[in-house]
Write a structure and sequence with these properties.
Blueprint lengths: L1 H12 L26 H12 L2 E6 L2 E6 L2 H10 L11 H5 L13 H13 L2 H4 L3 H17 L4 H18 L9 H17 L5 H4 L14 H30 L6 H10 L6 H9 L1 H22 L1 H15 L14 H13 L9 E2 L4 E3 L2 E3 L4 E4 L1 H5 L43 H18 E5 L14 E2 L5 E2 L4 E5 L2 H8 L6
The structure holds protoporphyrin IX containing FE (HEM).
The site of protoporphyrin IX containing FE has 27 residues, from helix 5, helix 14 and helix 18.
Amino acid sequence: VLLLLCTLHDYRKRKGLPYPPGPTPLPVIGNLLDIPTVESWVTYTEWEKKYGEIMSMQVLGNFIVVLQSYKAMKDLLERRGQIYSDRPVSPFFDMMELHWAIPIARYAEQWRSGRRALDRSLRQSAAVLYRPIQKAKAHAFLKNLLARPEDFREHLEHFQGAMLMAITYGYDVEERHDVHLGKARELSDLAASTVLPGALLVNDLPFLRHLPEWLPGMDFKSLARHGRVLAEEVVNGPFNFVKEAMEKGTARPSLARESLRESQDGSQMAERDIATALGSLYAGGSDTTVSALSSFFLMLVLYPSVQKKAQAELDAVTGGARLPDFDDRANLPYVDALCKELLRWRMVTPLGLPHATTEDDVYNGLFIPKGAIVLANSWAILHDSSLYPEPETFKPERFITADGRVKDDHLLNVAFGFGKRLCPGRHIVDSTLFIVVSFILATFSVSKAKDDYGYEIPVEDEYTGMQLSQPVPFKCSIVPRTEATKGLITDVIATE
Ligand code: HEM
């Protein structure tokens, strides 16, 4: 009887309209067993043939919608952005009081004001101001790579963290064990490891948070307390460093300094909102960029001909006598196209970040309930063989026109999400990829590593991750191209 009443109530709520099609749910657990756990975006793309451009699933009380066509993504996430820009609720993040963190914040006033601040600080014209910092940090990265090439992934993480800290707070991190960077890393790891489905029972059974801590299985409560303290340190530590430096008159140009000055000049932004918006940048910008740059190393190993072609283009511009610069970009169409192909080939976030609806909606006669989790399968767009022939092959040429210019492909923006939640860091990403990629190509040669007997160690084109996809760790050989390019790394460069 209860089941019948629920079904009737549900039918009335959606006025008899069907939900988007999808695999048949089982009682109680719904589609839990249908959800793919590896490269789900590939399975969803296959399901498109069966269910069409919009499909749905139900898992433990969550209603999940997967958008498979560019049109549906634009129609819903952009044109109806007013009701498709929320984020799913995470009980554990609630316990950590992370409501201020922009990537996971609900669609409410605090997100709006923080987001306005980030859009202003990270707009294309402002991103240009931080190029000297990007160059200096990329150069320090080359030096680390020269000293310990086998730890390239660790150097990438350090580079990205150091660059974000310098741009955001004008703060130079220590080479090892930096206190602020260490805490930002710890918070990011804690959030990433607890957000995954099944990682914490409290996310699926939220009532658990109200049970006493002495019961078995309640460890998440002390973890949430630790996370809360850590988050405050991540927000306030480097921000207070800037405030003190401003009082002493020693603050370097940074997003924090400029935002604080604007707020002192009468902008409506409260100091706490500035601090929390900026405190969100490491979480949004570190692992994402590191994943894209790790894919670059993988690509260099798998496609030696691309590496050679890009190096030849660079040498023709710099004469091999200096490091490339941002101003060279217009004369480096192949390198430029290579950076675009990097974002397409092995996507960092193939399903973006989940959006959520704040109202019931109807699209093409299908009912989408309030609170639905909405995923945009961007991978399906950028790996559509009718748009990108041989989509699994790395081909920068696909972004070059017949007369040798770089194509402006608006579809590539799907790599950065949609609508009001579109990634605010995309301009910084654009310049970071260009400078790091061209610095590495100019100075190093990357190939398969050899074992003790001189045999090449095979490298698999394999990726891990549910939301953020990154290459499975692999070994490669990274050596300076020549004595002269080694000199370019050890020389001091002018960054201003
Ligand atoms: C290759 C690098 C990157 C990729 C592929 C990427 C991609 C994305 C995607 C797909 C989203 C979700 C958009 C949506 O919900 O529709 C996002 C959000 C976000 N990204 Fe990025 N991102 C990258 C780097 C960065 C960097 C460097 C920063 C900071 C400087 C950054 C800051 C953020 C923030 C704060 C959000 C949350 C926006 C919001 O919820 O309003 N990202 N990014």
